[in-house]
């Protein structure tokens, strides 16, 4: 049965997780009078000790947010675990991340149909992937800026820059070729490996980069899959030609 508590002490959560609510008074008495003696006094319930230690270890390691009498928990302080407190949503989130296949009845309803819902674990994983992609995109932007400054300072010269444009204001063929070469260099860098043979990025191939861009920026004009595939292919071809010159 789902619990409607807003918070739990570690021993409370361990008791409910072990389905020992009927013995709560007896267990709490032992925990308060003989801290750390659960396994000794209740050998018939080994999961009680195991679950209590899992929860406390998660708090100590910073994996499960908790407080001590409403304040932060100092890992070096010898505070009594009986006064640690865990918020209901934090406990649910920890279970979803750490034990996604376990759904304790006191936290998760087994009557509701969630077959069409995205689990919290999947949501957190997708969010983490999105954060990685955003960081990678920012890194690519910085790399492009650095390459532009180091390899093409002439673009900053207004006289030369003016020559790269046609009368209609469109980039000339030379300027377009330069941009293709820069994009090709970025692709080669992103999809390449270090001297030790390690990938330089999380992207395995060009298709992965295209998928990431179209997913993160679905409404930006010019960033359709068809356009990116065509432009990237052209950039890699121009870059390969430039390397043979």
Search tags:
single chain, mainly alpha, elongated
Strand percentage: under 5%
Protein structure class:
mainly alpha
Detail the poorly predicted runs: 152-169
- Tertiary shape: elongated
Cα distance spanning the termini: 73 Å
Number of helices: 10
User: Can you tell me the number of structural domains?
Assistant: 2
- Indicate the radius of gyration in whole angstroms: 29 Å
Strand order of the largest sheet: 1-3-2
Largest sheet, if any? 3 strands, antiparallel
Number of strands: 3
Helical proportion?
55-70%
* Helix and strand element order: EHHHHEEHHHHHH
Average pLDDT rating = 78
Question: Quick recap of the structure?
Answer:
This protein has 245 residues and is mostly helical. It is 56% helix and 3% strand. It folds into 2 domains: 7-98, no CATH class; 120-244, no CATH class.
Annotate the secondary structure layout.
Blueprint: E1 7-8, H1 10-17, H2 24-33, H3 38-41, H4 46-60, E2 67-68, E3 84-87, H5 88-98, H6 120-151, H7 158-163, H8 173-191, H9 206-216, H10 225-244
Antiparallel strand pairs: 1-3, 2-3
